[in-house]
Design brief:
Blueprint (H helix, E strand, L loop, with lengths): L5 H7 L1 H9 L1 E5 L3 H12 L4 E5 L24 H12 L4 E5 L18 E4 L4 H14 L3 E4 L11 E5 L7 H12 L6 E5 L34 H18 L6
Length: about 250
């Protein structure tokens, strides 16, 4: 085991590190959540990473996305992520897909070769298609619920989708997954009540509204809640792949 993973091996053991080096994990969505998940997986010794995202790095990403720097502006996020991963671990294999995951292209990805799937995309249709593909191929999956318009990173928790509450995205996912006969989905979510984007809590002028996907208002976000969600996602992947968990 290379020295760069020595501290991790002290916790997980040699056998677990070998398992991680042989593992192939797909991260769908390389944004505020997925980027931090991707990096933590790379730093934990995952041998092969598949990165799926169609977006390019832009100025509005700089406040929260780990791959976003002035030097990566205009790059495809997956390309910036690949460079970053290989700078961390040159022995890693990184497969990039400059495309947005949709139900229509779900069969374009080698789910049968994945050891784990991380869902960090932000559309219900995509999340449902990912859950269906994971169910079809028997691949473990963990899905991020809404991290936008939140301020309390400490409120994030891991649960089964059917045990969630409060989160509007989780509510929609519960209903739609039930229709599809999917009985379980591991998720990271928060019971925090979402803030209203654009509201000035200090009493000054409101900032101009920005647009998100499909012309919808973009959610407010910050440097810590999406990051925390991504790190929790990655932590669950590592613990599930190795079977090593803490006790408390």
């Amino acid at each position: 085991m290379r020295e760069q993973f020595a501290r991790t091996q002290l916790l997980l053991g040699e056998t677990s590190m070998e398992r991680l080096s042989r593992a192939r994990v797909a991260v769908f969505g390389i944004g505020g959540v997925g980027g931090h998940a991707m990096e933590a997986l790379a730093r934990s010794g995952i041998g092969t990473l598949d990165l799926i995202d169609s977006d390019k790095v832009c100025l509005s990403n700089l406040n929260r996305q780990i791959i976003a720097t002035r030097s990566t502006l205009g790059m495809y996020k997956v390309d910036a992520a690949r460079e970053r991963i290989l700078d961390i671990n040159p022995e890693a294999v990184v497969n990039v897909y400059r495309t947005f995951f949709l139900p229509e292209n779900a069969d374009s990805f080698p789910f049968s070769e994945y050891d784990y799937v991380v869902d960090a995309i932000d559309t219900v249709a995509g999340k449902l298609a990912l859950a269906e593909q994971a169910e079809r191929y028997g691949v473990p999956i963990i899905s991020s619920m809404g991290a936008g318009n939140k301020m309390e990173a400490s409120a994030l928790e891991v649960s089964d989708i059917y045990k969630t509450s409060v989160c509007p995205l989780a509510r929609v996912m519960r209903r739609e997954l039930k229709k599809r006969g999917i009985k379980h989905l591991k998720v990271v979510y928060s019971k925090e009540i979402a803030m209203t984007p654009g509201h000035d809590h200090m009493g000054g002028d409101k900032e101009p509204e920005t647009k998100g996907t499909a012309g919808r208002p973009a959610p407010g976000s910050n440097a810590f809640v999406p990051a925390a969600a991504g790190l929790i996602l990655a932590g669950e992947v590592i613990k599930d792949l190795t079977g090593v968990r803490g006790s408390f």
